[in-house]
Amino acid sequence: MKYLTQTVQKGDWKAEKHVPIIHLPEEVKAGEAFEVSVSVGDEIAHPNTVEHHIAWIKLFFQPEDSKFPIEVGSYQFAAHGEAEVFSAPLIQAKMTVAAKGTFTAISYCNLHGLWESAAELVF
Ligand SMILES: [Fe+2]
């Protein structure tokens, strides 16, 4: 049996176009709002067609003292060239946290599966 988590792929976003890239401020403070964004294809553009596209991105944050990750948001990209309309794989969230921790982003390509990356939030 193969579990879903065993299928999640990783890589260097500079060389692999599927890897989500988490953009964080250099430093944040407890309780102060900050913005985090996630994109796919900053270095090597991923195709965005009806046949081949990034369908969604999910973003999680796990505070360092928490046992489980918290879902920050779930973003569905629905337009991939129909009537020349394209939704690009870029999302942004504004949030506050009480402790430093780890962001994890997971993206889904309809042809090449699940891809993940992680980034540390520094206080
Ligand atoms: Fe792909």
Report on this structure.
A hairpin with a 6-residue loop joins strand 3 and strand 4 (70-76). The chain is globular. The termini are far apart. The chain has strands at 20-23, 34-40, 54-63, 70-76, 90-95, 101-109, 113-121. By secondary structure, the protein is mainly β. The protein has no helices and seven strands. The mean pLDDT is 97. Bound molecules: fe (ii) ion. The site of fe (ii) ion has 6 residues, from loops.
Largest sheet: 4 strands, antiparallel
Bound molecules: fe (ii) ion
Count of DSSP strands: 7
Anisotropy-based shape? globular
Helix content: under 10%
Low-confidence stretches: none
Q: Could you give the topology of this structure?
A:
Elements (H helix, E strand, L loop, with lengths): L19 E4 L10 E7 L13 E10 L6 E7 L13 E6 L5 E9 L3 E9 L2
Antiparallel strand pairs: 1-2, 2-5, 3-4, 3-6, 6-7
Bound molecules: fe (ii) ion.
Question: How would you briefly describe this protein structure?
Answer:
By secondary structure, the protein is mostly beta strands. The chain is 0% helix and 42% strand. It has strands at 20-23, 34-40, 54-63, 70-76, 90-95, 101-109, 113-121.
Characteristics of this structure?
single chain; 7 strands; 3-stranded antiparallel β-sheet; 4-stranded antiparallel β-sheet; mainly beta; binds fe (ii) ion; 123 residues
